[in-house]
Amino acid sequence: MHSQRSVAPVPEKCAARFFMMRCIVEAFLISTGIVALAEMGDKTQLLSLLLAARFRKPWPIVLGILVATVANHALAGAVGSWVTTLLGPTALRWVLGLSFIAMAVWMLIPDKLDDEGGDEAPRMGVFMTTVVAFFLAEMGDKTQIATVMLAAQYQAWAWVVAGTTLGMLLANAPVVWLGDAITRRVPIRLVHLVSAVIFAVLGALALLGWG
After folding, report:
1. Distance between alpha carbon 85 and the CA centroid of its chain, in Å?
2. In the chain, where are the structural domains located?
3. Which of 5, 45, 168, 180 is the most exposed place for a label (fewest CB within 10 A)?
4. Measured between alpha carbons, how far is 209 from 38 in angstroms, rounded to an integer?
5. DSSP for 122-153?
6. What is the pTM of this model?
7. pLDDT over threshold 90, residue 65
8. Cα(107)–Cα(206) distance, integer angstroms
């Protein structure tokens, strides 16, 4: 007798790969969209506008935003993934569901940014000033908390962080280049309302065990 290695049927393999790809794409697109919407009118977007107006050097500012966001959201995503190892499926479902609903309420509260600086040139340079300021401003911010929850929800750390980072750039890069002209044209209140609805739907789906 010779041993035969069991091989999963091709349709099952394809179905598994399709499901994995669907989850990855969903995690990336949802993370991108929801963070881009949540960032509109957020204090870090106001910070982007402030930095652009003060230093008038868009490229180092945008690169600083990119570096700060990757570092901050990678940490947030790691926390979200770590949370899934501590909580059972039922507890995680309730924590995520209630957290998403709390985020929906938080989205309806406008942000303000205190400007205590002057117009003097930064000692660390525009790039490093942006990295430090943006990283600190993002700590405990709506988009950072959203990254934690999305990473816990989808358990696809890299794709969630990639999506939230892209969402932050989509919201902040145009502000750096175009200034407050773009924020005047966008109905921030409506954007926040749409974001709140999305967070509420995600919370309801999590509580119902869907997705």
Report:
1. 21
2. 11-208
3. 5
4. 24
5. PTTHHHHHHHHHHHHHHTT-HHHHHHHHHHHH
6. 0.78
7. yes
8. 18
